[in-house]
Amino acid sequence: MRDEAFIPGPRLTLPGAGAGPLAGLSFAAKDLFDVAGHPTGAGNPDWPTGRPLPQRHAWAVQRLLDAGAALAGKTVTCEVSLGILGFNQFDGTPRNPAAPGCLPGGSSSGSASAVAAGTVDTALGTDSGGSVRVPSSLCGLYGIRPTHGRIPADGMVAQAPSFDTTGWFARDAATFARVAAVMLGEAIPEAVAPAPLLLAADAFALADEPVQQALLPVVERVAGLLGKGTERMTLGEPGELAVWGAQRNVIQRSEAWASFRPWIDAANPRFAFNVARNLAFAASLTEAQIALARSVRERARARARLLLEGGAILAIPTTPFTAPPLGLPLPELDRCSERIGLLCSFAGLTGVPQLSLPLAQAGGKPIGLSLIAARGQDARLVAIARAL
Amino acid sequence: MRDEAFIPGPRLTLPGAGAGPLAGLSFAAKDLFDVAGHPTGAGNPDWPTGRPLPQRHAWAVQRLLDAGAALAGKTVTCEVSLGILGFNQFDGTPRNPAAPGCLPGGSSSGSASAVAAGTVDTALGTDSGGSVRVPSSLCGLYGIRPTHGRIPADGMVAQAPSFDTTGWFARDAATFARVAAVMLGEAIPEAVAPAPLLLAADAFALADEPVQQALLPVVERVAGLLGKGTERMTLGEPGELAVWGAQRNVIQRSEAWASFRPWIDAANPRFAFNVARNLAFAASLTEAQIALARSVRERARARARLLLEGGAILAIPTTPFTAPPLGLPLPELDRCSERIGLLCSFAGLTGVPQLSLPLAQAGGKPIGLSLIAARGQDARLVAIARAL
User: Fold this and answer.
1) Contact criterion met (CB < 8 Å) for B265 and A333
2) Span A356-367, mean pLDDT?
3) Res B54 pLDDT > 90
4) What is the three-class DSSP state of B245?
């Protein structure tokens, strides 16, 4: 029986360089990253058709190989990275090893599933609207959405360029930090400098009550490490997270439509209904709507600078709930996606790094606490995760 | 190599009754009609999942079997009958034997293809928005959209109940009339009574110039048979056909959304992009928009009564152009579908019967002239076709 975390067909493997900081580690790559000589599937049966085979590995794949890690396979993704819950109506839905019978989260669903199952040590994902953060939370993994623009996107299927990032997963903080040092090209500091921890009350209020309760001890633990106490605050004005969520959707989807329209016009490809529907709505957005959304993004960015550039760390729930069960009808799936979007939009709009910590459970299922820092402070977040 | 007019898999065949008016004829059934004990595929891979197998044949299938015809297979259809050009991104696009390298028209694409190729003598189709009329025109066949409600729809996958009809195809008028007598349960009159022929100038003006030129001699031939000359008139006020086309889309799509929504909500099925997009737009229609469209339909119905209930026959081009080539990009396919919709909307909105005559060619490809009569005068249209 095939491991449904990986794409159908023979497993695509490559040895790593003989030595290096990641020697001995295995990794999987979401099927959005190019591997030279093999089609990139992108989770949709009509994506590879008519495209030339990649001539070179994606930057992130090459980076891990050069550091000594071995490629153990390419993993299932939501169709062209559009989806946050992890189902795929063509390739199947990877299982959630940490919450049997539940969705794994997506769109980097197979990468998270393979790491959570212990099949690989680490895995590459992409995160435009939450695609590393969400499966990290639902599968109980360390996962990061780095600062936007920090990691080269060469050889990665673009979705929404002003949101697209490359992230990775690991089961333990030490492995996560080893990979982080390679991906960021920067040593992970041993020491964690004192800093205030901001608890975003408006973000917590969007989570289910048991999730809030499960995460508060983790917040205290982080605050203890940072040594300057916890300050309750809000990310936005009342209701502003909902505005940011909606406007993030407008910008991201309009960029996705621009990315995928030439292919859609030429091929009229097959999609699950919800994926096609969301693209169709994006097609009907007007320039005025998109311009309004961009002005809202500027407000969120100003807020991020004000909150974070003094060195504070911000804590929010990564997702508002634990892994939803398989088999939900589409309207319920849509409600889940919309609620998740509210929590993922802050880092998405502002480009700041966000790391999800797998240190809590609610109802027997994992739930992530996210730490957010100012742009460029990716290594600092990793250091905090490792020191906890 | 499989005959791409038929659905993939073993050919589903059934003998006809030993004797009867259709003894010796073979027929194919669009895969929207039930055959007892076999899944109805409806042109979409996720339609049959979880549905019980049909316990009995669809009314139309049983009717032809009882009359002595033998079932020779089930044919490819556009997904859940949504489509007018005949492509199917899952099952493939049946070829157009009369226009190689071109689309066959749809949604009864495989039925028309099999008849045009000579594989079967006749074939069942459905016509909600043009799904028998259009492939008749593009493949050079006799085909009818009967009076709405005339033929029982039992055992046929419903799309838009106030538009859905069951029709059939044949290569020659004699066979077409034999099948018609069985399907209508009414003898086809030998004599054709004198009647005025109305040439709808506004409908002709929507067709390409070579199509208009190709059809005018057929109009004259029909007028000669009817013996009361040709009267040039218009179906609507200036611009009204465009209004009818748009409002027909609103009503038909809103009914299709109501038909398919429970399945879509439960299964989030796979579709070609254009099919999902059109359903998604239907989902966003408001009650007020639908009510407005229904009031426009009343105006079209009043016009049909005024024009036709005195016994006149109306002539319009079945399609505004001959079969488009394969491989067009989606925006061009959409423009083709929209133009076709303008000509198909009159009978769709008003429920009158429309028969397409395969008596003309333009640029070496078939083009149909449609005759339209008052509700219930199906047999009269068939008699005219046979007498020409």
Assistant:
1) no
2) 98
3) yes
4) helix
Give the length of chain A. Answer: 388
The CATH number of residue A154's host domain is 3.90.1300.10
Number of CB atoms found within 10 A of residue B192's CB: 18
**Pick from A175, A189, A152: which is nearest to A23 by CA?**
A175
Question: Chain A residues with CB inside 8 Å of B330's CB?
Answer: 264-266, 268
Residue A266 lies in a domain: no
The C-alpha of A276 sits at a distance from chain B's nearest C-alpha, in angstroms, of 6
CA distance B58 to B77: 16
Neighbouring C-beta atoms of residue B145, cutoff 10 Å: 33
Whether residues A270 and B270 touch (CB distance < 8 A) is answered with yes
Number of domains in chain A: 2
State the pairing for strand pair B122-126/A354-362.
unpaired
Could B268 and A265 be called an inter-chain contact, meaning their C-beta atoms sit closer than 8 Å? Answer: no
Beta carbons of A273 and B272 less than 8 Å apart: no
Could you tell me if the ipTM is greater than 0.85? yes
Tokens of A223: 């605050």
Question: Is A261 an interface residue toward B (CB < 8 Å)?
Answer: no
Domain of B105 in residue numbering reads as 26-184
Q: Report d(CA A187, CA B248) in Å as an integer.
A: 65
- Among A140, A159, A184, which residue terminates a domain? A184
pLDDT at B1 (0 to 100): 60
Nearest to B128 by CA among B92, B79, B83, B170: B83
Q: Is B271 on the interface with A (CB under 8 A)?
A: yes
Is B268 at the interface with chain A, CB within 8 A?
A: yes
Return the pLDDT at A1: 59
